Amino acid sequence: MFIRDRVTDDHHPDPRRWQALAVTLAAGFMSLLDVSIVNVALPSIQKGIGANAGTAQWVVSGYALTFGLVLVSGGRLGDALGRRRMFLIALAAFVATSAFAGAAPDDTTLVVARLLQGCAGGLLTPQNSGLIQDLFRGAERGRAFGLFGAVVGISTAVGPVLGGLILALFGEQDGWRWVFYVNVPIGVVAFVLALRLVPKRTTRRARLRSEIDYVGILLLGLTVLGVLLPLVESEQDGLRRLWWLFPIAVAFGALFVWWERRTVRHERAPLIDVRLFTTTPGYAPGASIGAIYFCGFAGIWLVFALFFQEGLGYSPLQSGLSVTPFALGSAVSAAVAGRLVPRLGRKLTVTGLSLVTLGLVTVALLAWLGPTAHASFVFAAPLLVAGVGGGMVISPNTTLTLECVPTRMAGVAGGALQTGQRIGTAIGTAVLAGVFRAMVGGTHGDFPAALTISMLCAAGFTFVALTLGVAELRARRARRSDEQLQHVTMAAPSE
Q1: How far apart are alpha carbons 202 and 187 in whole angstroms?
Q2: Rounded to an integer, what is the distance from CA 128 to the centroid of its chain?
Q3: Model confidence pLDDT, tens digit, residues 349-402
Q4: What angle is formed at CA 112 by the lines to CA 178 and CA 84, rounded to 5 degrees?
Q5: What is the pLDDT of residues 163-219, one digit of tens each?
Q6: Residue-level pLDDT at 167
Q7: Which of 93, 130, 272, 292 could pair with 410 in a Cys bridge, judged by C-beta atoms 3.0 to 4.6 Å apart?
Q8: If you ran DSSP here, which 8-state letter would residue 235 be given?
Q9: Distance set, CA 385 to CA 323, 333, 382, 464 (Å)
Q10: What is the pLDDT of residue 317?
């Protein structure tokens, strides 16, 4: 069940903490939204700027790549230099790179802008979880993490809807530019409010040379790059051309773990203290559940965009509105689930994963059996069920994964959690989109059959996450029983 913060410090709640949280979550929402909102805009980008399919794919994949590369480093910099400072720097960079992407005169410039925008987003996102650890304690922290988890899930789910609306308002020729421009006014307002509301750090500042693990940053970056690059290049046969990067990534990953353990032994500040995964209750299984769930959850949006736009001839707006039931269900259940975490704990994620699996399997069956002429209406109910389940997964899992993390490791723990989710997103998108396109080609244009197989693959990922969730639920019950037994034993009078 929910475990209260074990860090004993003289914490004096900031009276503006909820307003500060609202501002930081709004900025975090923008950065996470840009992972999925561009999916529906890819055809518009190709028409408007003359980009080929490979370059257009890099507009999506490049952002995800650099976003995932800097997440942990961004969290560590926030821990060391102050989260308010890093938040403001990253937010300013995100606004500037969003304007740069919107104004890009050619496809090469747009890809460069998206790579830089991904870096800014990756630096921005882990500051949210770190600020929650700093500003909140006890049950309040659980509610705050619930809101943060809701933002993570909702931003991914509503991306196709908002992207479709923007393209409908500004037209397909130049509407894609406003997908990026919309971040500018929101970001400027958030920056001004953050200057006023986010409290300054009162502890000492880090000494860059002694407290930033540059070797760890390099090794982890090479590890993540080796995993993500073949995946983001999968549409251009990247898995066949770049498969050799996977074993190199494993080697760098092992070297990274060795280096971090060595750094701890020498009593220096590591990038990631690997004890976070071995001694922090619930962190390792929670991070695994999140990464595997995102393989199925985040990968379905590109598949739906391809099915509705290429298979059924829908406009971007119609395509986005077709998945609105998932977004609505996720928004409502995430808000409710955040409040139920202290009472229900891991039961919420197990229930949510069950509903997502059920919803995706039902969509697969309906795509196989039902008429495609009214697919958006046929899929509405199971997508709503899956959305309700999705809202019960991300928000509670974020809370339960980070609840016992010490405050000094809050930023890097949140960054590592998000890195797992970004890798899951890349794997899921590569696998599901690859399966979908292979089925369309192999069946000579049978889009419903391709959607069926893709949804079953997504349900398979979700079922694996469900299995891990059940195991974690049993482990929590066992820990609680041991703690109760130990308490009774200590309270019993001695003979």
Answers
A1: 26
A2: 13
A3: 999 999 999 999 999 999 988 766 788 889 999 999 999 999 888 878 888 888
A4: 75
A5: 888 888 888 777 889 989 989 998 999 999 999 888 876 444 544 444 677 888 888
A6: 85
A7: 130
A8: G
A9: 12, 10, 5, 19
A10: 81
Closest by Cα among 459, 460, 454 to 367: 454
Which tokens go with 71? 């997440």
Half-sphere exposure in the Cβ direction for 430 (13 Å, CA): 24
Express as a percent the part of the chain with pLDDT over 90.
Answer: 21
The whole model's pTM is what?
A: 0.77
Q: Spell out the SS3 assignment of 128-183.
A: HHHHHHHHCCHHHHHHHHHHHHHHHHHHHHHHHHHHHHHHHHHCCCCHHHHHHHCH
pLDDT of residue 381: 94
- The residue type of 433 is A
Structure tokens at 37: 């909102």
Q: Looking only at Cα atoms, what is the longest distance across the chain?
A: 85
Residue type, 150: A
Pair 25, 144: CB distance under 8 Å = no
Note the pLDDT tens digit of each residue in 157-179. Answer: 777 778 888 888 888 777 889 98
The conformation of residue 409, written as its DSSP 8-state character, comes to G
| Cα separation, 323 vs 462, whole angstroms | 18
At residue 208's C-alpha, the angle toward residues 204 and 210, to 5°, is 90
Identify the helix (H) or strand (E) that includes residue 391. helix 380-391
What is the per-residue pLDDT for 6? 42
Tokens of 442: 């192999």
End-to-end CA distance of the chain: 33
Q: How far apart are CA 140 and CA 18, in angstroms?
A: 10
Distance CA(404)–CA(3), nearest Å, equals 7
DSSP string, 45-76: HHHHH---HHHHHHHHHHHHHHHHHHHHHHHH
Q: Sign of torsion, CA 466 468 472 474?
A: positive
